[in-house]
Amino acid sequence: MSCTKHVLVAVMCGLVGSGTAAAGERLTLSDFASGSLADWETRGFDDVAPSSYDLVDLEQGTVLRGHCDNSASVIGLEREVDLDETPVLHWSWRIEDVFSGTDERSKKGDDFAARVYAVIDGGLLKWRTRAVNYVWAGSEPTGAAWPNPFRDEAMMVAVRSGTDKAGQWVTQSRNVKADFKRYYDKDADHIDGIALMTDCDNHGGSATAYFRDIYFSAQ
Q1: pLDDT above 90 coverage of the chain, percent
Q2: Which of 43, 135, 148, 210 has the smallest number of CB atoms closer than 10 Å to its CB?
Q3: How many CB atoms are closer than 10 A to CB 213?
Q4: Are 115 and 199 contacting, i.e. CB atoms less than 8 angstroms apart?
Q5: What's the gap between Cα 93 and its chain centre?
Q6: Mean local confidence (pLDDT), 91-100
Q7: Taking residues 200-207, what's their average pLDDT?
Q8: What is the pLDDT of residues 139-166, one digit of tens each?
Q9: Order of strands, edge to edge, in the sheet holding 73-82?
Q10: Are 197 and 66 in contact (CB under 8 A)?
């Protein structure tokens, strides 16, 4: 099954596995170190070759690798997260390089070596779907934010930019509840899942990224 290109939770269509964290607890979303992708599911886009996602062993342990070659697809996890109890998303990622010379606010330049989506699913009312899409940008500066050129339901946020730290693990933290308020003026009490993505179908390049240690906490 494929989903229409960049129709967000179309990004999450048909994912499996749900659950919530008890009040005040850390909610771990990735257990890649165990060598398992249980409850994670990949989804492609119509008429686009899929990126590949697999578990690999690095010096830090087992991590998720995403690779694209003129391709795009997501790997996602449906998991309800109580943003009143655990609003802060943490993750670590590593890229080999960024795409240079692209207009990342345009459809042609909407490619990123690494993305992390936080998604509120609109259910049957797909136009009510909302996502904040944290990216490692190539040209947009850190802190820049703009609507996704394919779908207004996604806000792009550059949490890192450029080749500084390329080839190294970088740990990020974002208050997702605050970001939904900031970018949508929405008092979100939960999200329905997350998705990871490595894509390069629009400009036809290739990229590799790694992900690990994805969890929510109170702070």
Answers
A1: 74
A2: 148
A3: 18
A4: yes
A5: 11
A6: 94
A7: 92
A8: 999 999 999 999 888 999 999 999 999 9
A9: 2-3, 40-45, 73-82, 190-199, 112-120, 130-137, 154-161, 145-147
A10: yes
Q: Max CA-CA distance within the chain?
A: 45
Where do the domains of the chain lie? 17-217
Take residue 118 and report the two structure tokens written for it: 């936080």
Sign, CA dihedral 205-13-191-93, equals negative
pLDDT band for 24, please (50, 70, 90 cuts).
low
Q: What letter does residue 51 receive in the DSSP assignment? A: P
- What was the pLDDT predicted at 151? 87
Q: Is 175 exposed, middle or buried (0-12, 13-18, 19+ CB in 10 A)?
A: middle
DSSP string, 178-219: HHHHHHH-----EEEEEEEEEE-TTTT-EEEEEEEEEEEE--
Count of alpha carbons within 13 angstroms of residue 116, beta-carbon side = 26
Report pTM.
0.89
Q: Sorting pLDDT into bands at 50, 70 and 90, what band is 9?
A: very low
Report how far residue 48's alpha carbon sits from residue 71's, in angstroms, rounded to the nearest whole number. 6
pLDDT for res 20: 53
Fold adopted by 17-217: Jelly Rolls (2.60.120)
